[in-house]
Design goal:
The protein has no helices and 8 strands. About 0% of the residues lie in helices and about 60% in strands.
């Protein structure tokens, strides 16, 4: 899980990436989601980008803006040569 501003980005295994508005901790609200091809195993957020570790393809790079999810690349496969 990663928190940026009022949003928590949750890698939710087979349910993909969940974006939760946590501006009111007593009433968190899911505002969007992104269904990864495999299991979402981890997430990091930097600026307007979410980097999701995906068991199927390696790394998904997702542009996020105010809870609206836009797919840039699916997947970006990272390999050691």
């Amino acid at each position: 899980m990663a928190v940026a501003g009022s949003y928590a980005y949750v890698a939710d295994s087979s349910s993909g990436l969940r974006i939760i508005d946590v501006s009111n901790p007593a009433a968190p609200n899911e505002v969007d989601f992104y269904d990864t091809l495999g299991s979402a195993n981890g997430v990091a957020v930097l600026g307007s980008y979410a980097y999701v570790a995906d068991s199927y393809g390696g790394l998904d790079l997702i542009w996020t803006m105010l809870g609206e999810v836009h797919q840039l690349y699916l997947p970006i496969a990272l390999r050691n040569n």
